[in-house]
Design brief:
The protein has 543 residues and is of the alpha+beta class. Helix content is 23%, strand content 22%. It is globular and about 75 Å long.
Length: 543
Amino acid sequence: MLLLPLFIIPSSAHASTGIVNPNQVYSYKVMQRDIDRLAEVYPDLISYQSLGKTKYGRDLWAVKLGRGESVLFLNGSHHAREWMTTSLLMKMIETYALAYTANTPISNYEVRSLLDSVTIWIVPMVNPDGVTLAQQGTAGLPANLANTLHRYNGNSSHFARWKATMEGIDLNRQYPAGWSTIRNAGAYPWYQNYKGKQPAQAAEVQMMMAFTKQIDPEITISYHSSGEIIFWHYRTPSQNVARDQSIATVLANLTGYSLVKPEKNPSGGGYKDWFVQTFGRPGFTIEIADYVGERSVPLSKFGGIWSENRLVGLYTAKKSYDLWLGKQKVQYVEEPMDLLAGTPLYPNIGGAATATASLAPQKLTITARKGDWVQVSAAEGTGWIHPSPGMLTVVEPIDASAHVPEVIRTYRYPDAFAPKGPAVSPQTIQVTGQSGEWLQIAAETGPLWIRGQGLELKAPLQNSEPESRPAPAPENQAPAGGTPPENQAPAEPTTENQVPAEPTPVQPPSPADSTPEKAPDHAPQPPQEPVRGVVTVEGEIVQ
């Protein structure tokens, strides 16, 4: 049998690149550059979008990490001099993304499984105008604006103490919760504490409120500095106190920070205050670092701060998922679908109980859904499964060919983070099924999946005679035949006169990235004439 020239791609698509360097003055421009690089290195996991522009033309960036329906929202640098909270959040994004891609745990958290169920949205720098002023002073600004800012700063050139926006408004005294009764509020624009003429006057606050309503998070954390304390209560209804306090207690244990005792008449205006009051859900303000006064936290403190907070995002992501799942209703359905990889079968939702069986790849019927859990009826019995993205889908049978112009990756099921199969070298391949943008291809080792972007489907390949042996073929020609691997269902054959049953429609997943994908570096070559047979591979399968 002639084997086509194929080679294996290493299983780790992304190596540790050390993009985020928190041991520097972390500026708005550095943050923008790092966000762009992270999205480029982790295109199927990280995306970002602008929520709009500030008074002085800077974008308010929101970064999306994770793939689940439940949402956690983290934000930092409401106050200009507190820019180390941006460094912390950016470090968190990269650390979690690296663990997800490598499928390695962090402490007791299975990051891959967790971020398949939860999306963490992060606004690392809520106040980019103010941060830039605190770090760089008035250098490069028009003279009239520089003079105004010096006046707001008490005629001092020491802008490292600056907390407000470049309009002299304190963003964490701008939210509508208790705005009229905020204590110690300045009467005019100043480097700190001025609450503005009315709530939500600042564009940054308007954008944060609108975005929070859009993503509908279960939990929010607003990072500040300094003091090593955690605020968790703002006029919290009695029925929510035990829930919120239990989460706050765990956060205190993780970080070593102290919980602030709730006040009877708290001064409001903060993001956390507004979220707790508006949504009735857990919201927290975490003040990193020991108290340093009217200045930024020294860079030398970052190592300890990271150690104290590296699990905060994972813990609150898990709590966000639990809260979200608890609100979901069971929906009874009857949908035939294809399970493309083995998965445990549980008697109840949540997976706390021991699995009753392990389902092999097969066609099965979904009988109910609750959140991202699915009840199925299979040969092994009836129970609940929690499939990873791409494992459970509707495969539309097709009979076509496509020319692959360059080496491409293959996957065991249609998802960028599915276990990898052997790479396919340039050749014409047989396509046997489709799920969204993904194509199922025939291979000697059994069905594999490739991304179909840029590939043109052509007339079906002709099958070789069962007993015939293919004649010697050119280098780009593949032999016929192929045996699927053990426990994997072969693709169902179709004939010219058979019409595949129309698949049950399923709701497409939400886009993983709001940024348009880049065009391929190499344009596809003109397709060659179809060849007989299926893709052949050689070497060990890389998981």
